[in-house]
Amino acid sequence: MGKAYNVMAATCPSRTVLHRIGARWTVFVVNALDDGPRRFTELKGHIQGITPKVLTETLRALEADGLISRHEYDENPPRVEYALTPLGRSLLIPLRAVRLWAEEHVPDIEAARARRPIL
User: Fold this and answer.
1) What is the domain partition of the chain in residue ranges?
2) What pTM, to 2 d.p., does this model score?
3) Looking at the domain 14-115, which fold is it?
4) DSSP 8-state secondary structure symbol assigned to residue 102
């Protein structure tokens, strides 16, 4: 059995994992790579609202965490593709569940927001 982690402990390294997964664009990038490898411009076009700078930062962070791979092809012009690693693919199951939950409960959340708007 592996080391026990406690995400509630301030110094637990599992917090950094949850921080990465909870980052604003992580879920969108991982979901965009669900169907297979994509180039930067494909990702940018698929994920509405993300800036090139933020996409670059997100891709670098996910690559550093081992969730995605970056493959450079020896072509002219250069071509780079991003893909989920096996570790990144293992994240798809819980992310799909969260996405489906969100899509199912949008009306409930919108109704709650209408009753009690954020000041």
Assistant:
1) 14-115
2) 0.87
3) Arc Repressor Mutant, subunit A (1.10.10)
4) H
